[in-house]
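W.,

You were right to be curious about this one. When I first looked at the sequence I had no strong expectations either way, so I just let the prediction run and decided to look at it fresh. Below is the sequence, 109 residues in total, followed by the output.
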Amino acid sequence: MAKRLSFAALRQQELYKNNIQGTIPAELGNLKSLISLDLYNNNISGTIPSSLGKLKSLVFLRLNDNKLTGPIPRDLVGISSLKVVDVSNNDLCGTIPTSGPFEHIPLNK
């Protein structure tokens, strides 16, 4: 059996409604094939890692209904494939990006 598992080809990460606590690992930004990241309705705290901006194939980003704080990382603006973003019901602050994929995405505030 392999000593180390590789999730490089992982396309969907659906861990919603699991009462997950802690922070979003910056290492998720290394999952280059990820198209869907669903972590909504948990108890995740901390900030949204800027490393998620490396997920150039990401289409769906649902982080709503958690305890996230801080601003939406500007690095997410560079994800041209991003179509659905939901960060509602958190304690985010700052401005919502208005360029790149955020320009035409209906954001739930």
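Here's what jumped out at me. The chain has one domain: 12-103. And, maybe more interesting for your project: The domain at 12-103 is CATH 3.80.10.10 (Leucine-rich repeat, LRR (right-handed beta-alpha superhelix)).

Coffee later to discuss?

I.
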